[in-house]
Specification:
Chain lengths: 440, 413
Amino acid sequence: MAESRAAVIATGRRLLRRRGRGLKPSAGWRKIIAYLAILGPGMIAASAGNDAGGIATFAAVGAEQGYRLLWILIPITISLGLVQEMCARMGAVTGKGLADLIRERFGVRWTAFVMLALLIANAGVTVSEFVGIAAATELFGVPRFVSVPLSAIGIWWLVVKSSYQRVERAFLLMSLVFLGYVVSAFLAKPDWSAVAVGLVKPSFSFEYTYLFTFVAVVGTTISPYMQVYVQSSVVEKGVTPENYGRTKMDVWVGTILAILVVFFIVISTSATLHEHGLHIESAADAARALEPFAGPYAEKLFAIGLFGASMLAAGVLPLATAYSISEALGFEKGVSRSFREAPIFLGVFTFLIAVGAAIAVIPGLPLIRVLLVTQVINGLLLPIILFAILKLVNDRELMGTHVNGPLYNLGAWLTALIVTLLSLLFILVSLFPNLLSGRS
Amino acid sequence: MLYLSQVLGRPIRDLEGERVATIKDVIVRLGADDHPPVTGIVARFGRRDFFLSRWRITELNEHGVRLNSDKLNLRPFVRRDGEVLLARDVLDKQLIDVDGKRVVRVNDVQLIEAAGDWRVTGADVSLQGLYRRLAPAGFMGTRKPVEVLDWADVGYLATDAATVQLKSSSDKLARLHPVEIARLAEALSYHHGSEVVESLDDETAAETLEEMPSERQVRILGDMDEERAADILELMSPDEAADVLGDLPEEKAEELLGLMEDEEQADVAELLPYEDDTAGGLMTTEFVTLPRELTVGEALARLREMAETPNMIYYLYVVEREGSWKLVGVIALRSLILADPAMPLAEVMRTEFQMAHPDEAADEVAQRIAEYNLLALPVLDETGDILGIITVDDAMEILLPKDWRQRLPRLFG
């Protein structure tokens, strides 16, 4: 036996040397896989903005304002990238979720306040997802009082009792339909010079509808839940400060790609609807912008995309909210827990789905309008999350040398301040409609 | 009984009842005590923090602190070794409840006066604890019984303050099964999860690491002191250790491997060249071979004498002769025990058996193990030499959906 042990050691040594010479065949592949595994959170978070509320908002931007609001996509890209990057960096450096950090650094009262804001914002978005489901199924002729409760029960069951991850991919695939807007935008033959002007020439107005749309765009692109999501998935993936560079790139690439899709949605709706003086009142109107691409199938295609995107977010969003709140308040969490073990976690999750579905089935609800309002709520609550993020990311005790640089801080603070001012201005204008109008 | 939230921000009065400062934090000393004593208070006066020793305090209650003199000694506060600030390091932080086997967040800290000493007796993790801090002071009484976690059951405190880890914590954690420790460490952030593993003894640390997902293993071992990491790797099963080394950066893996003892180093090095998703990547080198010329009795005697018995001895692999690796048969431990001790192994062994080639796809091999209800499958090279075995645990990891794996205890280390 002793002899054979020696033989094994010799073999091991030999193999070790072979490995040292780089004969290991998998090295290249492993690197690519490692890259793909990390490439993701930022990309997914950013494209998650293109859900029911997002599509409705961007379609409304194009239809109502034409190319007038295109210019805000450039500052929004920068702001979204900055905010997402800060959260991703916090996840990599601290290994903790946003809700965790808020609780540990700000104490109970602030946590309760921030979580309440997050709960309201996410409840709004959840409503918008169920409205999206209603709108999508109605295009197929299924009344919403049938489709919405069924979807709500289905989602609840899939998440709690079964494996949501298995169907997740199907929904994700369905939502890829929205890439059709990119093709549509070209086929609609827009006036590219007008597009270029809209993109670089800032316009502003104190009109209620203009501000409303503006806040909705900000709220839907830089939504609070995305920041929570990107940070926790960076933590989940085990990104470290050492290999953070790739994640940083992923965040920026994801942001730019997501805004590019938005850009084309606005162009195609503007070219097909705004230029013909049409408005967006229903999902069918938003679907018409896909006509240059899909012709008679536009409506059905749009419905499929909307359904997939809405189902996806209607499951993920309540779940993410329940995780955040349980995390921050220190309650048991996890879908495998029973109601007795994790009452708050499952309670929040069930409550959000129930509220979302209940509001979406109200008869005669103006769907597109509701979608926009939920995004506005998001925009109004955004400053609270933004200031919390900024305070955390600049905390040296927490972030060490990874705090923001001065230029970075300037951009981030500007974002927070502008979003805050915009929200205040919007509230002011909605309360006193005559105060600032006429000076547009 | 007192809660931390009831004293924070309360006034500090001198002998005459004159308000001289406010309570900013409460200092306790962690040590061998199950219920650590309060050693002082951080007082806030103006915009500066001062240290107040326990011996200058005559009263501590929800109305604040009363000093035993009129003089306020303005000694600036400096944290000493082993000291923890309750508000700064404990409140709102996570800790491991060893008794409940869970990670909880501290909503409040309970203090009890006993024999002239204030001691930390428990961590309030209840909803009421949250209300108490949310509601305006005095709004809610404390009469309601609340869920308080006994401080003696605190296994680990997830605080960023260095040097304050509980001395006794690793003993408490070690009472848990490695699977449980792994689940708890995963519930914490990477940094704190690593601390938990590092606090364990080598054996437990190795077993705990084996239960963790590979990203965690890599990060924890990669950040650890190299000597310690190598010691832990030696104690892990060779296939797990090889997987970790394969995922670490090239130089780091090289360095750790070099630090390992010869024998374990060889075991691991042998497994390194195989791809993750092949039979070779799945196999372990811990198995028992017996030469065919032995009798059943001799074989059993040899098994008993082995210095380090591999975890997997339910199958014994019979080779052509002493020192050879050429596999000629397989014997289940059951048939070995039941057989007549005088019989030669060659007559007891089965010569028809399932096997795998190191380049075979991992999922196909795993499938085969499940299909034939095997506990392990030998992996042979082209010449018929046995290279290693694939145990049913490793096969299950491939076959089961991802979220199931974590609930599955390992049968063979």
